[in-house]
Amino acid sequence: MPSVKAIKQRIKSVKNTSQITKAMEVVSATKMRKAQQFALSARPYAVASLEIAENLLSHTPINLMPPLFGEREIKKSCVLVVTSDKGLAGAFNANVLKKAEVQINQYKVLRRPYILITVGKKAKDYFEKRGISPTKSFWGYGDYSTMTETREIADTLIAGFQDGSWDEVQTVYMNFRTTLLQEAVAKKILPATQESIREAVTSILPEKGRFAPTPTTYNLQPTTFSYDYKFEPSPAEILESLVSQLIRMHIHHIILESNASEHSARMVAMKSASDNAKDLITDLTLTYNNARQANITRELTEITAGKEALES
């Protein structure tokens, strides 16, 4: 059995660790809520843009559709993997990277070339250690990324699709469903479809919790347009610009969802660590009391034995 002093030092060490994990849990919870608020702040604009885009799409001939809607033979794919820069977030990064490996293995089976683009240091380090060098890597966006910061990622993906460097864009990231439930998903971003853009706008709201949809929030309903907008210079040019902006917003929202999922996963991991620390402190305290009582019993035995030896 360890000494009383050693057990006491270990109890102190576990208590200090518990204070750190508790603080990280509170910080992560606050950041998670702010990340959701950042995502929601763009929803009114997204809903209005989607309404205009759907109106235009319903009146635009197929031959004038934006290039980003162009379906073509897939000869090369682009995979965007979104992870975090930091660890201590439970299985957050591991689940995303596992999903990315599944996606990449599918391309290997199909013998289809692919381009890898990563967001977050964890994805970059993971693939480089396995001999796969990302074509481009992004990191350091912080906890609350802005559209200006994530625009470079979106423009890289859009430009590569338009110039034929790749024929589709698949993204692998952590989808924030609820505070306690996040799911690693693989989703096609390009070529875009009307359904995928509508889904991107709809998914800005989480399924449950404080920010879940209510009858008063911006709900999307199928709309039959009985009116036309007048645009200059032309509907086709405006539609192309509008769709590009919606794609940028989609990618920006993916980054924000990943941020919210990271903070949520870290909050849960730190709560679990704090609970484990409490249990460990309880066990160590019991061990400490037993050791202390054993020392007292031994000392009393030695005193009694010494007294008897002197009297005999």
From TrEMBL:
InterPro entries: ATP_synth_F1_ATPase_gsu (IPR035968), ATP_synth_F1_gsu (IPR000131). It is a peripheral membrane protein. It is found in: Cell membrane; Membrane. It comes from the Bacteria. Its main location: membrane. Keywords: ATP synthesis, Cell membrane, CF(1), Hydrogen ion transport, Ion transport, Membrane, Transport. Belongs to the ATPase gamma chain family. This is ATP synthase gamma chain. It comes from Candidatus Sungbacteria bacterium RIFCSPHIGHO2_02_FULL_52_23. The gene is atpG.
